[in-house]
Write a structure and sequence with these properties.
heterodimer, A: 81 residues, 5 strands, 30% helix, B: 134 residues, alpha+beta, four-stranded antiparallel β-sheet, three-stranded antiparallel β-sheet, 7 strands, globular
Chain lengths: 81, 134
C-alpha cells in the first residue's frame, strides 16, 4: 500500500516538499516507516532520529500499525513559543 | 539592564481585567508575552514566520494548557499562539494565568512553556533583514 507522511518546518525544507510517499506492505508499523524513510529520503535522517510520528493528529508510538486512510505526520524539531 | 522599584500610594494599575467568574478568589494574575527579538545569532531579524500543523497544534496547545492548569490547580489558564508572520517587537505568544497564590501561577507558567516548546507542532522560521527584497 502507499503511505504519505506529512512534513513540516525544517524537515519539509530539507526535502523541498510538504510530504513524502512510500510503498509498503499492508499495516506497516511506524517503526518500519521510520526505517524506510531513512533509506529512501536520507535528507530526513536528522529529523527521523529525534522526531515523533503523529497518526490522525495524535502522537503515536513506533509500535503503532497504520492503515491506508490514516493521516501520518513526522513531527520533528518543533520550535513554538 | 533596567531595574526599578517604586512605592506608590493606593492600588497598582491592574495588568489584566479581572472581570471573571472567579475574581473573588484571585490572588495572583500572571501574564507572559513571548516577543520576537531584534536579532538571532547576531543577525538582524525582520520577523519570525510560524507554521502550525493545523488541528493538531490547536489540540496539543489546549491539552498542554489543561494538563498544566490541572496539575497546579490554577483558576484560569489562557494561551494565544501566533501563526504566520510576526514582526520584530510583536508578541507571538501570550499566556494569562490566574491563581489563588503566586506559586501556582509561576510554576504553571514555567512548566507550560517548557512543554509547549517540546510538544506542540508549531515551527518558526527566521526572516532576516538581508533576505528581504529591497
Amino acid at each position: 500500500m502507499r503511505v504519505r507522511v506529512l512534513l513540516f518546518g525544517p524537515a519539509a525544507r530539507a526535502v523541498g516538499a510538504t510530504s513524502v510517499e512510500l510503498n509498503v506492505e499492508a499495516l506497516p508499523t511506524l517503526a518500519l516507516i521510520r526505517s524506510r524513510l531513512s533509506v529512501e529520503s536520507p535528507a530526513l535522517e536528522p529529523f527521523l532520529t529525534a522526531g515523533r510520528f503523529a497518526v490522525n493528529q495524535r502522537y503515536a508510538s513506533d509500535e503503532t500499525e497504520v492503515a491506508a486512510r490514516d493521516e501520518i505526520a513526522l513531527i520533528a524539531m518543533v520550535s513554538g513559543g | 539592564m533596567i531595574v526599578e522599584a517604586t512605592i506608590i500610594d493606593g492600588p497598582v494599575q491592574p495588568l489584566a481585567a479581572l472581570d471573571v467568574p472567579h475574581r473573588d478568589e484571585v490572588g495572583a494574575a500572571l501574564v507572559f508575552d513571548g516577543i520576537v527579538r531584534r536579532t538571532e545569532n547576531g543577525r538582524p531579524l525582520v520577523a519570525l514566520d510560524y507554521e502550525a500543523y493545523d488541528g493538531m497544534a490547536q489540540r496539543e496547545l489546549l491539552a498542554v494548557a489543561a494538563s498544566v492548569a490541572a496539575t497546579h490547580r490554577v483558576l484560569s489558564f489562557r494561551v494565544w499562539h501566533s501563526r504566520g508572520r510576526v514582526p520584530v517587537g510583536a508578541a507571538s505568544l501570550r499566556v494569562e494565568i490566574h491563581s489563588r497564590h503566586r506559586k501556582e501561577s509561576l510554576a504553571a507558567m514555567d512548566q507550560f512553556i517548557d512543554r509547549l516548546k517540546r510538544d506542540v507542532p508549531i515551527w518558526k522560521r527566521a526572516i532576516f533583514a538581508a533576505d528581504e527584497p529591497t
